Fold each of these.
Amino acid sequence: MPNRTSSFFSRPGLLFAVLGLVALLAPFVTLAANRIVAGVGVPVWDIAAANTTIPGLAVLLAGLALGLPAALPKLRLLGATVGVAALVWLLMQGSTSLLEGAGPYARVSLGSGFWCLLAILLLLAADALSALSPGPLMRAGLLVAAIIALVLVLWSGALADLSIYREYISRHDAFFDAAQRHLGLAFGSLMVAAITGFPLGVFCHHNEGLRGSVLPVLSFLQTIPSLAMFGIMIPLLAWVSSTIPGAKELGVAGIGFLPAFLALVIYSLLPVVANTVAGLEATPPVTLDAARGMGMTRQQRLIQVQLPLGLPVMLAGLRIVLVQNIGLAVIAGLIGGGGFGTFVFQGLNQTATDLILLGALPTVTLALISAITMDILVELTRPNSVRHG
Amino acid sequence: MSRANILRVIVVCLLLTLVLQPEWFEPVFAPFSPSGAPVIYTRASLLSLSLSHLGIVALASVAAIIVAVLLAILVTRPRGQAFLPLSRTIANMGQTFPPVAVLALAVPMLGFGAGPTLVALFLYGILPIFENTMTGLSTLPPATMEAARGIGLSRRQRLLQVELPLALPLILTGIRLSVVIAIGTATIGSTVAARTLGEVIIAGLLTNNTSYVLQGGIIVGLFAILIYDVLTQLEAHFQKRLGGSRTTV
Amino acid sequence: MIEIDNITKVYDGRAAVDSVSMTIESATITAIVGTSGSGKSTLLRMINRLVEPTSGEVRINGELTTDLEKNALRRRIGYAIQGHGLFPHHTVARNIGAVPQLLGWSKDKISDRINELLNLFSMPPEEFRDRYPAELSGGQQQRVGVARALASRPDLLLMDEPFGALDPIIRTRAQADLHRIQRTLGSTILLVTHDMEEAIQLGDQVAVMDQGRLVQHGTPADIITSPATRFVAEMVGGVDRPLRLLSLLPLSEIVEAGEAEGPPINDQASLRDALSVCLGSGRNTLPVERDGALIGRVTLEAIRSRAEGTHEPR
Ligand SMILES: Nc1ncnc2c1ncn2[C@@H]1O[C@H](COP(=O)(O)OP(=O)(O)OP(=O)(O)O)[C@@H](O)[C@H]1O
Ligand SMILES: [Mg+2]
């Protein structure tokens, strides 16, 4: 039965506090002699002198404590922010002091304790936000603020002593190439899929027979494992390039960007087409009946009624595609298609954890940002959401 | 026999021959191999790879189903209600994590082999099931729930006799999404040395032997389609029993 | 004038509407009643060709509906349905202006028309123009639905259970509104309902449908006093029939000279109202006034004898 304490204290908040305390016991960072060997865990109180760890820890604990009162979600959000700031600060101080006198190749990497605390604080923020339930514009503002904070921390070089940062420095140019390639793959294929899939969806909506044959084929393509799909594109395009005159001059080749791009486009078609059809069918039958009854032509109904009302569903399809493609583009790294996957698979080959992270973390961040942005767009296109939101 | 059933039989036969008697397909795949290279993958038997592949998927999926359904039950009870909004966020945002990234991140913790693949499939598999079960259990028709209380069912009886059966089609949808993703993702597990059908595809990629890529891809794809089909039929069956009043996603 | 000539609609070998013929005079309200599935909506929708008849034809003011382009025809006819069918993504103003916009009216003209209609339905334009349908009450949504149907000043208005989703009090008010507006605009209205009470209240003419056939078409009084079939009699309801009839008759018909005690009753009230006042106040005679001047009295006896003619079920 709920009693006084549990109604004052947020239950998730309590859980986070307890988990946070446990996570403090785990190694906050690891110190290794070079980038390949496994490191030794260092608990948070040993990462630097007491006069730096104690204030840092105090702020971190304060952040967790601010996460407790159930009725004050703004305070809880503040707690999460303060806690993350404390984490970053501890990391900054810790990595610098641990490397002092530890040899030229020594590396400080993020430990399980850090990851757990970060996850807990982010969940705390998420929980507080779900209680605040901010409108789409507010959410967009928060997202932009978070991105700016992240960029500032990375750009300031405060974390330059971390191993993952060093991996980045030594691959500075390759990193931005990979980022460009990854974005090109994910967004480019999204665009091509939208341009071809959307009209196809409209045709399918009008033509029952077409729908019956197009959708199953696209679903079938979706079940082909991504690795095989990428693999099949290579010889296919090599064949096209060598047999169709002019294809080679246009840049069609069995290696590099194009096979990966084409594979992503194929995976994107199902969500785009299926959601376009679903979106066009989302108009309530009475509304459509009224539109017909007042003498709207088929085209007027499509443009003035069905499209605006179906837009959220269609955008939801694009969200699926975007998130899916950002993830699948990683596999391009395996077939020489570039992108962040290159680092992931290089890292796996060299068993260099921080190199894996250098590929995986930007991918995850990109996927999260895209998902949140698309969610905001979906909500904004819902009829009169701004006024209710 | 209906056309759909004939198609099913054909698919099953095709799959079985591909796995058990791959050499029968040599003429079909031969044009895709570089001249002189072997056409049919023989470094390991396709049967043992298939079994290992399906085994990993089954293990991870069963664990994911148990954990996801239990968690979803917990957060939809009055005591766990405080966790419901948070759970929704986790389920929604967690699914944006690319499966490959989850797999790669599990390697530093668990080393190479089947371990990271199992963990990645398990973690990634939880979310769709969790989300759907949660939706199923929190959007039950209020009148039915009122009636269940009214006739004096205890909480446990309500859960087992009313709530779970009503949510079953949605739960099955979640399981289907999860298992189909797992079958595809398991192929990538071969890049971290798990024994799956991905091995065949990767061998093909490394030696430019497209017939390997096709073999691996087709077998995995057919497995995915068959399992997708079975689970869809199951869903439709339960949905029909419930009168089709609730739509699946 | 609308002439429906031997019109039939067959679905899967079954006639949803079976050789219906009727003529509707201009500037009247005709209520089509019947049980669920009797073909009322199908009949209505064949007039603006949302449903194409299997056979038979419809003429509006002598002109065949099939001679016009479908959408042009529909833009000339107002159409309001149960659940209003408003566009959820458009404001009230844009909803009401939909048909004028399709017809290519100028912006100013549309805007004036919207204000005029909102005022007609007692919804202050400055307050309601920019709201979305979700921000209105059910009764307001329904009024906007009717306003939208009236926007292009159609001579003919088709309404399919327009008040079906409203609660009884709002429903009565909406019916009164419609009646008032129809009298001011002089439009021809064809209204589908499954509620005989509503049909009798609103209809100048009532058409009763049963299993796709038109079984009776006449004034409300005709329908009550001489139901054509057992089905119509059932629809009218045995016990209530005298009361229903009384509610159709104005007091002015049976005013007699003389005086009476107590507060007077207006001569436009129905006999049913008068009966109710008699019973409620325990009086046998009521004074009757018109424009504030006493013009005579009405007796309980007279009301009773007026009602007696109806009480003989066939
Ligand atoms: N598009 C259609 N296809 C097949 N049958 C139809 C169709 N539309 C209507 N019907 C059938 O025609 C008959 C009459 O339907 P209609 O909608 O006209 O009834 P109604 O009198 O308006 O009923 P309600 O009061 O329930 O609205 C019904 O039996 C119905 O099932
Ligand atoms: Mg109807």
Amino acid sequence: MQALSDDLTVERARKGDPAAFRSLVETHARDVFRLAFRMTRNEDDAEDVVQDTFIRAFQRISSFEGRAQFKTWLYRITANTALDLLRRRKRAEPRSAPLDEVTTGVSGGQENAVFGRQIRERVDSALEDLSELERAAFVLRHCEELSLGEISHTLDITVNATKQAIFRAVRKLRASLSTVPRSVT
Amino acid sequence: MSHLGEEALILLHYGEGDGLEADRVHVESCLRCQAALDALERDLEDVGEMPTPERGSDYGAGVYERIEPRLTRGRSRWRPVWMSAAAAVILFGTFLAGRFSHDAGPSVSQEGLRERVLFVAIGDHLDRSQMLLLEVMNAEHGDDERSTARELLKESRLYRASGTGVIDVPTTEVLDELERLLLDVAHRASPDDVLRSRINDQDVLFKIRILQTAVRERERRNAITDF
């Protein structure tokens, strides 16, 4: 069966066609999950974000006017849903164990793997230290490859604020990585 | 041309910025900027693509199956304003009936009915308030949202007046907090971003969800006692 175009499917979903909304979920769920996971860094949280995103989208689809692409609109809801969750988590839960505790006890024969893991953990830790906005802007630019204009629309901030958020994110990530040796001789 | 700073290099790496072509030409002929760009790209490569767990091609179908009951419930509970207003009138009538028959002593069924109507109405009120706040969180709010906020505000005040002695302190606190936000939305007293920060900072949506769960549990218990 030939897939319906997004525009036509969105139009049918706006008019209350459940099959059309289902088709939109089936088409976009993996992209939404990927963005949600990259923003939350947690699989369960990402699943919650995916479900909440589509429920919010369902509740609001009648007001979607098609001025932006459906995927951009959906990303906007995903980013805001993930930001809500991250802000709640930040207040509710203590930070995870420091890196030094996590890496203690690794033997000398596994240095390359250890350094690779150290980099990953430094990156994860640095990502947690970013503000929600910095992380969202960085993920949307670095991983999802959205333009500054698209990110600005998605996060409802100016292009200049988007740039500044990305600059701060990159600066913090680089500062964090600067303490990790890059190779073993 | 002077050397490029980190911000210009970041824009260059991502292919953004007004002076992109000139910066690219400069970097090609400048060893120092080339080295700085290489270092930046090495760091960003270390950050990587942030690998995500795999999801199969039927993932979307599974997501839809999981959310479908909530979509149906959301649609059926998203009642028109006149229905909520009718619920408020019934509630107020039940409240008055309770008051004027006080001399004879309120019967258990009367009190029970009053409590039941009240909590169904509060559950509906929370659903509608949650949807309104989600609208505010995700888009600029306009006349429709302000009008809905005014309706919800009126209802909330009525529920609280009718629920004296029945609504517990935590519920009252959430309704208080919600009323302040509804007032803000109704009169557009704060810019959207300030309002969103308040909703986030005070965890209002989270508190509403918790309260919804408690109210539904109460509805469920009431339904069980009917049998």
Amino acid sequence: MKKNNILILVLLLFANTCIAQKQEKLHFFGVPQVQLLNGTGKVSGAVNISFGLQKANNAYSINTGIDYYRYRTIPIIAEYKRYFGNKNQKPFVYAGLGYSANWLLDNQKRQIYNWWSSFWPTTANDATYKNGITYQLGVGYAIHNKQQKGLQLSIGLQAKTLQERFEEMVFNGTTSVPMQRVYNYQLNRLQLTLGYKL
Amino acid sequence: MNMKYMKRITTFAVLIAMLALTSCFKDTVTEKYTFFRPIYKTKAAVIGGIVAALPDAIKQPGKIFIKGNYVFLNDIDRGVHIIDFSSPSSPKKVAFISIPGNVDMAVRGNILYVDCYTSLVAIDVSNPLKVEKTAVLNGIFPHRRYQNFVADTNAVIAEWQRVDTIIKKGYDATEFDKNNWGIALPFFSVASSPTGTITNGTGGSMARFALLQNRLYTVSNSDIKVFNTTAPEVPAFLAQVSVGVNDVETIFPFGNHLFLGSNTGMHIFNVSNPNAPIKTGVFTHARVCDPVIADQNFAYVTLRNGTNCGGFTNQLDVLNINNISSPTLVKSYQLTNPHGLAKEENLLFICDGKAGLKIFDATNPQAINLLKTIEGINTYDVILNNKKAMVVATDGLYCIDYSILNNAKIISKIALQ
């Protein structure tokens, strides 16, 4: 009995040691997240997943998901997260930079009506859309268990860009000629994120 | 450094950065676009600037006129190119007369009549490189309008300056509403095809100027103006006659009649009294653009749709005008997008837009047959002269030899530059 208790204790200590050592080793993690995005006159959301590698308090990950703010896009972000402290509950800061791929809904695309038709059909998609970049910066707080898994709350600034380009007829004094009009959008918002680290 | 302090400093720094960047929570848009700004000059300065110069590049070909071996080609709102076609296979640009606001013209003797915005100007072109203004009549063309700019009698638009603009502003959802009105308002001036005596030149079917006997007839959107050109260098205004509609585009003289094309019909005026055109007949149709020509018994009207014309029709209408007061439709022939036309004996030439120049046998108006198509050119108007068809297209001026009809072909071209 005494031997069993000692053996159990040693195993427990060994396990604890292993867990402690594991946190210092490079390990894989994933964080599914939902986000509330608040910008100029618009509140929207996003869902994404972050997966990557962590060693000690440094986490390197790739974020991707769907961003519904004004124009639906798919962000692909390389992110760095820095935790502070050795406790299970600890703050962190994060920053990321990446690519924003357009995935616009039809009603988010430019539509044009023809004056001279006897009916007015909607002619969609006379514009072309160019992908942009996305970046983010923020702070958060992790509520982890002993296995360093658990909730993560964060607040930050996120921005994405995209370009809309279309042709319009412009009067040149004699006739109307086709000219390009280009809109470069920069959409900035406050990002509130709730995730669960796996 | 103590990790605890490191943590606090880093977190604090990020928070400060975010607070400082709260203004960056606004969506912005950088807008790049181009518009054209009119540059105004006084009418006196513009009239004074009508001079001939060495040949210039053709920017935007418009109407055409032939006198002798010379072709006068309008460059819309810029002036008139004088081209020597004495050798049709190798034409040569001789001169360019800068005439701001010019879209129409006619030639009687050595006098070139042109519009210069709202003014009618007579120019002696005996020496194409040293032209002289002989008369200026103001206020003749009050219909000259350029979108929101009216060509008044004091200040006129001498040129249009391209302005490339970049502005940055906040994102306004209503402004960037994706339901936008299309803007498509090409401003084509249409000409008629005047025929005349030996002293008058020959114009295309899209013109607003026509020479008949010793009279120059010009049409605005709603009226005919009559000028006495007995002394060609000093045209004298005689009369203004209302057409009764507000969408006249072309005028074509034949015999003792003037045939006017408008968006809604063909109007016929009797000019037995050359100073007082009298309306004698009308043939109405759905809203389209329609230049018209005529011979002794029939009128030929091309109807086309387009952003400025509206409608859906693209066809040739052949009308019986034996009863001039009541023209009747003989038959309609479907085409692609017909513009100007001309006729020589039984041959009918139609500029069918991108479909090219089409040559028809019009011996039997009930059964007009297509004989030949000159493809590959986006045609606008045509004048026939000595078995040569001078065709204005979007990319230049073509000379087509149809002396052997089956072998009608392009023998020369003056391209845009």
Amino acid sequence: MSGVRGNQLNLNPFQKPILDSVALYDYDEDTDDSTFDKVFRGTRLSDGFSPEAPDELSAEDFESNPSQVNSSPPRKSLHFTHFVPKGAVRSRFIELQQWEGIVSEVSHEAFFARLISLSDDKPDIEAEFAIDEVHSEDKKLIHPGAVFYWSIGYKEDRGQRIRASLVRFRRLPAWQKHELEAAKKDAKDFADLLEWK
Amino acid sequence: MNDIKPEIQGASIVLIGDFNPKIFQPAWFASQDLIRNEEAKDAEIQIVHQALVDFSLEWLKVQVHQDRFSAGTHQRPYYAALKDLVVGTFRILRHTPIRMMGINCDYHFSTGSEERWHSLGHRLSPKEIWNKILEKPGMRSLSIEGIRPDQHMGKILVRIEPSRRIQHGVFITVNDHYEIQEADSTLGCDNIIDILSESWDLSVARSYGIASKIMEEK
């Protein structure tokens, strides 16, 4: 754990300029104007939000431009923080519900799992999945105790909307020796604390 | 909680430290079993350079500089996979010095009408003062910073702008910023990756709560 809270921030209405946090939200000044969405151009000016696109780009606009990168050495200011590429609006998954599943039993053609809702507080449920529903490269990951994520919803692609179900098994590196030793030590410390013999 | 749902959303994890970008190629992720081989094969590689790597999968975008690692997705079902990928990567590369982390969530909400759009802008940035200073003042960007509600070092930064992707929409981005205590003597990344592993779900939920609250306030 990383330690305790450090400098308490002054919560005056007028905050000092936030310079260090910008490090995680840099703006790219290279993107040309063609990346602006013109939706606000030409609409009437009003005083709630400003309808004009800003002259400077925000993190919202950033999309890395490899041609620029290739033509000159990479600059430190070339950063990205935003992950809604233009194409995403044409193809996206509208999630209705997501569960985390824990495999409890595996048979020849199916596996059983306990599903914990990640979308709401509904109680856990048990479910059976056909192994064929799992991507061929994920089948080797199906074993008791394995964790997967199951999402249901709609996939929208170029104006078409279809029901979709997505099963993806968790991929984490195998436990390493130092992690197992740390876990054993934690367990022992906890047992000692409770005076379990 | 208001029932309003974002039209578009994305999440990213940004790490600040010292990285060797050339390691972070799709084939390396596949060789470590962090992504599928098929995904690595189909990856769209923008650049592989000793100073910068940039590639995308169907659900993932990765960009690594010598001082910064970023990974993100714009697909909600892959949020957990994104976290697992970053945790897995730096469990393997555990000696990578990492000093700071941002868990960033972006949302585009529709307000449904121009009237509601302006109403939200007025509420967030009242114009009483600005009307005396500028003609037709309008809100372009608003950033508000708050202290962390937990024991970690860092801050929470919220920024709101008109959406450029949705008509009469609002773009909200929440930067959940973490720092480790002794950044100068950081030798590895176990601390920050432990925080990521433990805080991800809470951070994503908190960011959504913040964004929803902004949209639902009357």
